[in-house]
TrEMBL record:
Role: May be required for ribosome biogenesis.
Primary location: nucleus
Keyword annotations: Ribosome biogenesis, rRNA processing
Gene (name only): Rpf1
Lineage: Eukaryota, Metazoa, Chordata, Craniata, Vertebrata
Protein name per UniProt: Ribosome production factor 1
Organism name: Erythrocercus mccallii
Amino acid sequence: AGEGSGPVPGDGSGPPAPERVLFPPTFSVSEIKNKQRRHFMFLRWKQQQRKEKLALKKKRRKEREALGDKAPPKAVPKTIENQRVYDETTVDPNDEEVAFDEATDEFAPYFNRQTVPKILITTSDRPRGRTVRFCEQLATVIPNSHVYYRRGLALKRIIPQCIARDFTDLIVINEDRKIPNGLVLSHLPDGPTAHFRMSSVRLRKEIKRKGKEPTEHVPEVILNNFTTRLGHSIGRMFAALFPHDPQFIGRQVATFHNQRDYIFFRFHRYIFKSEKKVGIQELGPRFTLKLRSLQKGTFDSKFGEYEWIHKRREMDTSRRKFHL
């Protein structure tokens, strides 16, 4: 080779060839025609992404440990919840107007301990097996609740009978194609009435790693993220279903967790493993609710006055706006 010429390829001289990149920048898994090969390459790509993410996380943790007290504060990830659009009706716990409304609303007798919750649980006409089992399991979660079947009676005829027998709340489980898909909750005798869409229903036998059957102890109640005036009303409706004094010896907790206007219900038993560690077992059932409407007074589909109705086209314009 003449003076100034580069190394001859393959003669062992010069720098080593760079390692072959597993996924070139222009690579796209979707271009692979073979389905099995495409799936295999996608799994490898996901595995590589996971390894890179863990390595970066480990590197950052070591840097924070090296800096000690001088480490910058952890960055808060952006989520839909913490970027929520501010709602004017958000409740301030120290607001006198809110306190006055709570002292005079339909739930005041319950919160003043003047009434004891007594719940009637019923279904739509001719319920199927899954809905019947769900009602029976719901009755084991809510103390002092009784399951009766409709037998073709209209709700307008059922409500006066409930009031005459000192029931404080009426729960109606509706179904479609043998699956529970709706819940009507009416506070007696003066309302209000809430209509929910129900989804993701799981009975006890369908829950993995479930605990033993629940006991008859009165559970504790946890209400999370009901921050607006509407959410406050819904939270008070759920609270009024349970007696005031939970029996802590039973270690049972009923949770209504509101997230992005979806209300997730879970029923757990907790177990103290040590002074600092607590284990939980899900007892079931579980379901998810989405508020459709809130109506003044008891159930009246024709002439009822609605406080709030969910209108998708008008209200769901932003993913960061929530109503509860």
